[in-house]
Amino acid sequence: MNDRSAQRLAMLQEALASGGTLHLRDAAELCGVSEMTIRRDLSTQPSPISLLGGRLVMASYPGVTPVYDLTEQQSSHYQVKQRLCQRAASFIEEGDTLFIDCGSTLIPLLSQLSRFRELTVVTYALNVANAVAVLPNVRLVLLGGLFYASSQSFGSDGMGAAIERLGINKALISAAGVDCERGVSCFHFHEVGPKQAAIATAMQRLLIVDASKFGVVRPAYFASLEDFDIVVTDDERAPGLLERHPLPTLSISLA
């Protein structure tokens, strides 16, 4: 471990030892470095400190509830997500109508859609829509409703019915937690309806999830592993984990 990085992390751990949280900018000021340096320390060095919602917390502190922060998620495991999306793109065919889920995992996929001559993308995520809107070969269907800034996505009571009226070839679904016993889950309850509708409607259902999500349970359950045809992941242990509950139609695709 880099000595200066270790010293900064030790200083932050001491500041958090009594519980509570520390804002990222305050942590940077305390250590006399930039916020990016603190982010780099936390992402590259082993530490009991976690960055959640722009605040530093001790991972073992019992009073802390995880907070979903899209900006933080976008910078987390980015290279892994890029590889996952390259693998997921291999399942896309010309003329497909794709349901693309919200969150950060599938964002690297969007730059790969330009190589297709004709696609339709259905989404309820503003960040997905913004990226797809500039692609002349992609027809965009943006599902609206109440906007949730934390996940850059929309939600409405009628969204599920709107999705079910569409002919979706492939649903590309992301998740914040995958557990063999408790199923597949996410942070936000407004995402449950569109995810479930897309899974029910699509001809093929792909779960794209990195290894850090395995063994994790988040508040909003939306599917069982049996609901998917393919799991795209980077974890070589995934087949073994899923063998506990044999799924005859499920295949594992490693990035």
Low-confidence stretches: 61-65
- Give the overall average pLDDT: 85
Number of strands: 15
Shape: elongated
Helical amount: 25-40%
User: What's the Cα radius of gyration?
Assistant: 19 Å
**Structural class label:** alpha/beta
Give the strand order, joined by hyphens, for the main sheet.
6-5-4-9-12-14-15
Question: What is the number of helices?
Answer: 10
What is the string of helix and strand elements?
HEHHEEHHEHEHEEEHEEEHEEEHE
Q: Roughly how many Å apart are the termini?
A: 28 Å
Largest pleated sheet = 7 strands, parallel
**Fraction in beta strands:** 15-25%
Organism: Vreelandella lionensis
Protein name: DeoR family transcriptional regulator
Keywords: DNA-binding, Transcription, Transcription regulation
Pfam family, one: HTH_DeoR
Give a structural overview:
The chain contains ten helices and 15 strands. Helix 6 (107-110) links the parallel strand 4 and strand 5. The protein starts with a helix and ends with a strand. The protein is elongated. Helix 2 packs across helix 3. It is α/β, with parallel strands linked by helices and 255 residues long. Strands 6-5-4-9-12-14-15 form a seven-stranded parallel β-sheet, with helices on both faces. Strands 1-3-2 form a three-stranded antiparallel β-sheet. This is DeoR family transcriptional regulator. Keywords: DNA-binding, Transcription, Transcription regulation. InterPro entries: Carb_Metab_HTH_regulators, DeoR-like_C, DeoR_HTH, NagB/RpiA_transferase-like, Tscrpt_reg_HTH_DeoR_CS. Residues 5-57 form the HTH deoR-type domain.
